[in-house]
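Lecture notes, continued. The same structure-token format from the folding unit now serves as the input rather than the output. Read the line below as a description of shape only.
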């Protein structure tokens, strides 16, 4: 690697600051903050970066932080971590459990932030030694899990505000609770799905439950809608194209002896290509219209969400090559398509990008502890690996593209 920075040296330096990274992660974990309220976390990030001598910009995308590390003339690479938590009540019982009832870092964003702080430490050290062949932009992003009143997430706002302007590449990382520590995965092209929300309001005319003939029962009509919606993917989508439509909520009625005027359903649409995304949206509307010959009406509203996360092939090849140097051939794999969604997708549209999945499961555990659960947990031995992975990806891109 450029200026004799080897994968072995990167890993050794990352392991040397393991306790620092762990301490940052646990501090953030104890004080989780929801979407666009990450002031305390942003304050910690800004303080660490300033202590390292890194120039920072705060209040980017409302509560985000951007740091800049200047090295020799060369490419500019962005490294991204998200900072927000989830509205979940933690049940792990550790000494660093969330101190805020009903809020928890159940998706690993505390680890992402801590690992990027670790990467900042290593990269600033290399810059001070004259061994950084380019410029690093540290993107500490708020609000990946949710959007604000304008329907915008932290990643979307960072792109809109120019935080990624001029980047030659961008890399991100996410914990993988189903992969063991020391193993990583990614894939070129589409990796994570687009995620759209929808609402279907089935309208009829209500009345007394004992006189259904005098009504147009929206609850009965909703059964037809559910059956029709569940046939969209199996009968309207090409079987070799992945897609999902799930109805997640259904609400109608107030008491047992009254037929209501309407029933409301909400759900999600997942897809990987623009063509599939448009097909599923249009077919959802057609499926809901099944109630019209039966005397009802269905109002369908689709709320566009994150686009698919599409990894740049060249950035992904460089990332995977770097991971093989760092961890060994057998510990780097191509992951399957993931129906979950990520707003790293906006950043990967703004610059060639790659999103890496980092194994955090301890192989000695008797079960898995997935993200978005109250008992999510991770083996903290993964922290220096994630830090080294970010540094390796940045240096490899800089080296190859100088």
């Amino acid at each position: 690697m450029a200026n004799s920075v080897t994968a072995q040296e990167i890993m050794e330096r990352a392991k040397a600051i393991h306790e620092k990274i762990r301490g940052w992660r646990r501090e953030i974990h104890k004080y989780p903050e929801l979407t666009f309220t990450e002031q305390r976390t942003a304050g910690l990030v800004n303080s660490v970066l300033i202590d390292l001598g890194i120039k920072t910009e705060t209040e980017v995308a409302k509560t985000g932080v951007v740091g800049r590390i200047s090295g020799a003339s060369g490419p500019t690479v962005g490294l991204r971590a998200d900072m927000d938590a989830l509205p979940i009540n933690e049940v792990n019982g550790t000494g660093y459990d969330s101190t805020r009832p009903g809020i928890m870092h159940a998706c690993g964003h505390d680890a992402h932030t801590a690992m990027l702080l670790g990467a900042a430490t290593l990269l600033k050290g290399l810059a001070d030694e004259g061994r950084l062949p380019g410029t690093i932009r540290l993107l500490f992003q708020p609000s990946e899990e949710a959007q604000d009143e304008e329907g915008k997430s932290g990643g979307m706002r960072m792109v809109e505000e120019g935080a990624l302007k001029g980047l030659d590449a961008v890399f991100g990382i996410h914990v993988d609770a189903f992969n063991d520590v020391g193993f990583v995965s990614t894939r070129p092209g589409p990796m994570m799905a687009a995620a759209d929300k929808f609402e279907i309001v089935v309208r009829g005319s209500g009345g007394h439950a004992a006189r259904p003939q005098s009504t147009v029962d929206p609850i009965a009509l909703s059964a037809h809608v559910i059956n029709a919606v569940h046939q969209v993917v199996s009968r309207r989508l090409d079987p070799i194209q992945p897609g999902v439509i799930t109805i997640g909520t259904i609400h109608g009625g107030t008491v047992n002896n009254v037929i209501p005027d309407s029933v409301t359903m909400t759900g999600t649409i997942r897809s990987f290509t623009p063509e599939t995304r448009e097909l599923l949206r249009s077919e959802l509307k057609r499926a809901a219209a099944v109630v019209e010959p039966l005397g009802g009406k269905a109002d369908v509203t689709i709320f566009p969400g994150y686009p698919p996360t599409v990894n740049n092939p060249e950035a992904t090849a460089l990332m995977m090559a770097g991971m093989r140097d760092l961890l060994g051939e057998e510990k780097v794999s191509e992951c399957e398509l993931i129906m979950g969604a990520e707003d790293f997708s906006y950043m990967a549209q703004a610059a060639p990008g790659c999103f890496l999945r980092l194994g955090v499961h301890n192989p000695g555990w008797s079960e898995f502890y997935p993200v978005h659960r109250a008992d999510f947990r991770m083996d903290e031995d993964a922290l220096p690996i994630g830090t080294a992975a970010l540094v390796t990806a940045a240096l490899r891109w800089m080296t190859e593209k100088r």
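Point for the exam: The chain has a mean pLDDT of 97.
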